[in-house]
């Protein structure tokens, strides 16, 4: 909701800044609203101590699932409102990538668990080195 509101305010700002509208103070006011909402969005997250790679991967997986659910709800709304362009945009630019990310993160969580993480620091080290790839830095 906050993201939506910030985009609406930004849209208003650009509208009032157009040459054919030329209401720069309206534009400035709406741009300030958008910036405030964007700053609010970018505040420090609730958690910044991830404890382990496994915990971070589990949190990332949960976040990706929530994002996918929101995108699916937006897609349904676009379908209900008969907006095929938005449906296509969401499908092409987001949903396929989301499914790939969820599958990959799910696999990582499973493999880390099988390797003994988070109890085994060696498991996370080996996973980081061989699965996530540290080979570019070791030429």
Brief summary of the model shown:
It is found in: Cytoplasmic vesicle, Autophagosome. This protein is mostly helical and 139 residues long.
Give an account of the 3D structure.
The chain is mostly helical and 139 residues long. It folds into 2 domains: 1-43; 49-138, Ferritin (Up-down Bundle), CATH 1.20.1260.10. Helix content is 76%, strand content 0%. It has 5 helices and no strands. The protein has helices at residues 2-17, 24-41, 53-80, 84-115, 121-131. α3 runs antiparallel to α4 (84-115). Residues 1-116 form the Ferritin-like diiron domain. It comes from Saimiri boliviensis boliviensis (Bolivian squirrel monkey). Stores iron in a soluble, non-toxic, readily available form. Important for iron homeostasis. Iron is taken up in the ferrous form and deposited as ferric hydroxides after oxidation.
Average residue-wise pLDDT: 83
Backbone shape: elongated
Percent of residues in beta strands: under 5%
The DSSP helix count reads 5
The H/E string reads HHHHH
- Total domain count: 2
Give the N-terminus to C-terminus distance in angstroms. 46 Å
Number of strands: 0
Structure keywords:
elongated; 2 domains; Ferritin; 139 residues
List the helices and strands and how they pair.
Blueprint: H1 2-17, H2 24-41, H3 53-80, H4 84-115, H5 121-131
